[in-house]
Design brief:
mainly alpha
């Protein structure tokens, strides 16, 4: 929920600092960094574990949101935007590891379904929250709210996930995984 309102204003916010023609480039660059980060996340998880990884990523996200809220330096704002963009994807990946590890095999699909439904509800509420917070392009309020909403997430992590036992992180073979998805109707239907 902490980022869903910001999703609806990011582009408008960025054009306050850069030429509108470059906003797509910033999104593309952030997407490439996200893909590279996700490809390398297994090494990080094996080294420091999921709890420390998500905690560190959420700290980056917190400082990035505060930078987006209060900085007027275009370089800092663009860097903070890219860091927030990347951190969001890594956070969802880390949350999925928690969900899978803490769910019984028979209920993992249901647990993920509840999680995704909650996430989609947050995306639906995002424009409403944004509309209530912003008056005359005061974008900083949305980013500050996102940072404030991260505080309970830190509490939950520290309280309930500190002693998380990491699963064995296997390196999936790309072609074998693609073949498995292509040959299994249930997996193929996800896309």
């Amino acid at each position: 929920l902490h980022l869903t309102p910001a999703i609806y204003i990011n582009s408008s916010y960025l054009i306050e600092y850069i030429n509108p023609d470059y906003v797509g480039f910033i999104y593309t660059f952030a997407s490439i960094i996200t893909i590279i980060s996700l490809l390398g996340i297994r090494k990080v998880l094996k080294r420091i574990g999921n709890f420390q990884t998500i905690f560190f990523i959420l700290l980056i996200e917190l400082f990035s949101l505060l930078t987006l809220a209060f900085s007027h330096n275009s370089h800092l704002v663009i860097t903070a935007f890219i860091l927030t963009f990347v951190a969001t994807s890594i956070t969802f990946f880390n949350l999925d590891i928690f969900l899978e590890s803490l769910s019984e095999n028979s209920s993992t699909g249901s647990t993920r379904g509840v999680f995704l439904t909650s996430l989609n509800t947050a995306f639906i509420l995002g424009p409403l929250i944004t509309g209530l917070l912003i008056d005359r392009e005061e974008f900083w309020k949305v980013y500050l709210m996102g940072a404030i909403l991260l505080i309970p997430v830190f509490y939950i992590l520290l309280r309930y996930m500190r002693d998380f036992k990491d699963p064995v992180y296997h390196k999936p073979h790309f072609l074998k995984t693609a073949k498995k998805i292509f040959n299994d109707f249930s997996l193929r239907s996800i896309f």
